[in-house]
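Customer escalation, tier 2.

The customer says the design service returned an amino acid string that "doesn't look like it belongs to this structure." They asked us to rerun it and document both sides in this ticket. The original structure tokens are below, unchanged.
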């Protein structure tokens, strides 16, 4: 019987070569890298890969990065936030060039993924670069022309920290596009009525009945403190724990 490749299953644990085919600036500290992988069986929205760098003396460092978009003819994308002292993130954002070879392993993770066949409304809550796997879900929805209600709440320090800002604005303006809300913790635009500050319970309920009474599935991604705070707000608002999926990150 013929075997069909299942995204996220076959070859996920095997290290393979990936070639850098593109790099673009998202913010002053975040870059998106395009990587061509010869053997890629696809992935699910929300999955991630491991990237391994090897120094001339044999020292190796491995970090995990979320996939930022559906695969395009064997080309995948990751968005990397450069962190102070981050040995891998600094290399990927400041040193890696088109044509460079990286080692990757994946796709990985089958819990923090969006099932495109699930008609439930989707609430996405991101802190900083936690928007990356959520953007993969938004792009997958747009590419498949799915009309499932979807809302993104993205907490950033300043307007300049809005990763994918222009693209999200364009998608939100389309008929049937996602609802997008930015929250600012340090500095907000002069047109913003919400004072800068941390995530509040009211930020997760825009009062427009966007779910039409249906129970949404919630995806929360960001730094540990942000994720815990957001999950607690959702639980307090009546969302069921089994409908809240979280992913957190540390130093890279």
């Amino acid at each position: 019987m013929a075997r069909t490749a299942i995204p996220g299953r076959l070859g996920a644990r095997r290290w393979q070569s990936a070639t850098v085919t593109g790099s673009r600036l998202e913010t002053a500290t975040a870059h998106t890298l395009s990587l061509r992988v010869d053997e890629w069986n696809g992935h699910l929205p929300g999955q991630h890969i491991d990237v391994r760098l090897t120094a001339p003396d044999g020292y190796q460092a491995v970090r995990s990065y979320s996939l930022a978009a559906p695969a395009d003819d064997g080309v995948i994308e990751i968005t990397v936030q450069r962190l102070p002292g981050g040995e891998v993130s600094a290399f990927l954002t400041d040193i890696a060039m088109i044509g460079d070879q990286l080692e990757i392993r994946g796709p990985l993770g089958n819990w923090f993924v969006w099932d495109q066949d699930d008609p439930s409304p989707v609430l996405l809550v991101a802190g900083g670069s936690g928007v990356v796997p959520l953007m993969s879900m938004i792009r997958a929805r747009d590419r498949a022309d799915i009309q499932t209600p979807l809302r993104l709440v993205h907490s950033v320090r300043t307007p300049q920290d809005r990763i994918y800002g222009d693209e999200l604005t364009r998608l939100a303006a389309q008929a049937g596009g996602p609802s997008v809300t930015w929250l600012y913790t340090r500095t907000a635009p002069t047109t913003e009525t919400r004072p800068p500050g941390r995530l509040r319970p009211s930020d997760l309920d825009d009062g427009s009945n966007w779910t039409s009474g249906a129970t949404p599935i919630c995806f929360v991604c960001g730094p540990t403190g942000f994720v815990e705070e957001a999950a607690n707000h959702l639980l307090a608002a009546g969302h069921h724990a089994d409908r809240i999926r979280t992913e957190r990150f540390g130093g890279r």
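Tier 2 assessment: The sequence is consistent with the input. The helical segments are 87-94, 131-143, 165-173, 224-236. The chain has four helices and eleven strands. Sent an explanation to the customer and offered a walkthrough call.
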